[in-house]
Amino acid sequence: MTPVFAITNARVVLPDRIELGWTVLCRDGRILNAGPAAGVPLPGDALMEDARGALLAPGFVDLHIHGCGEHLVDDGPAALEALSSLLPRYGVTTFLPAVLPRMAGADASFVAELASARPQGARVAGLLLEGPFLCITGALPQEALGAPDLRRVRQLKEAAAPLPAVFAVSPEFPGLRDLLPEMTGGGIPAFITHTRAGVEDTQTAIELGARHATHFYDVFYAPPETDPGVRPAGAVEAILADERVSVDFILDGEHVHPVAVEMALRCKGPGRVCLITDANRGAGLPPGKYDFGGRTVEFAHPGAPARFTADHPELAGGLAGSGLTMDRAIRNAVRLLGVDATQAIRMASTNPAAVLGLQTETGRIEPGLRADLVLLDDDLTPLKTWVAGKLVYDKDRDLDSM
Q1: Is the residue at 334 inside a domain?
Q2: What is the chain's mean pLDDT, rounded?
Q3: Gap between the Cα atoms of 286 and 46, Å rounded
Q4: What is residue 44's three-state secondary structure?
């Protein structure tokens, strides 16, 4: 029988509090037991890890990421595998890589290539297809603006298998009501984004399974004004008013104002707000210029947004994802929103796991769940990360460059 792995003397982060002096037992990739040391007997042959009072949190779940370090999802399966190995450095144990629309291709062959990747670090929870079912490009190429095509939806789902395909959609996309039942048939919601939809279109999309909004507020425009001086209600208001819909944010201090995030927290409560990175190639690296799908973006400082350079006059200065890593996003939540570490970590673990229907697999520290764990210092910097009980990052032994 596989020996038990025990993490002792930990401050364990639960969804609503931190418990001191806990022991967590793991075996065969799952959590066996977790609780105060006196109530968790240690087997004599247990492999021991003394946390020395550090924070032990559920591994982080990133719902929207294009790249990090030198790697970009759209470079192909090898890049996806490299991302999987890199992200545990930032506490991420599960992630949803975002695919640019032009890379999906008419025959979905690139999606199939990505699905063939064999990641060895953080788990790939699915493939987020950010296009071609959008009405506004934002930083995306024109291929994001597709045509209603049920056959394409089915092709993309089949290509992504055995991973789920997660569709990003504009609620006002023509014919979307005929596509959403197929998009959400596996129980995973479609993600609302890149929109100027009115209330009615948004409510219809929600009813048909679009139950999450990604990079909320960013590329979420108000509908056209019909009565002078009357602010039109649109997708933002419909999403905030519907308790079934969760939201996520790029919390780098520039993509969205902290007051707007605070409003969402008040509307949604602690369980429906998530942190994402929407990170690009170059995240976690020194400031500078990096390639993003054939276009050049620049980071002004660590954790800054990616912005298009003057090489692209029509886009110059525009936002193109972020330089965030998930641990930095959590620290930003504490600094910018005034939430405590418990809430910030919940927004990066428990909540996004639930969005993907993984709440019985990961996102909390409790018996039966996968042993996806991250050990943090008091500054919320990852020290060690485990995926299914396997140590995949150790700050003291990590000497590889990005």
Answers
A1: yes
A2: 92
A3: 41
A4: coil
Bridge partners, 384 (sequence order):
375, 394
Question: Which among 55, 44, 140 has a CA at the least distance from the CA of 101?
Answer: 140
What is the three-class DSSP state of 331?
helix
The model's confidence at residue 292, banded by pLDDT at 50, 70 and 90, is confident
Tokens of 156: 């993309």
What residues have CB less than 8 Å from 125, skipping those under 6 apart?
Answer: 61, 94, 95, 96, 163, 164, 356, 358
Task: Say if pTM beats, i.e. exceeds, 0.90.
Answer: yes
Here the CATH number for the domain that contains residue 383 is 2.30.40.10
In a domain, 401, yes or no: no
Regarding whether 62 and 50 lie in a shared domain, the answer is no
**Average pLDDT over every residue of 134-146:** 64
* Host domain of residue 38: 5-57+365-394
* 377 & 303 share domain: no
In a domain, 230, yes or no: yes
Please provide the size of the chain in residues: 402
Number of domains within the chain:
2
At which residue do the structure tokens 């545990």 appear? 88
Domain shared by 224 and 213, yes or no: yes
Give the Cα separation of 282 and 321 in Å (integer). Answer: 11
* 3-state SS, residue 247: strand
Average pLDDT for 89-105: 86
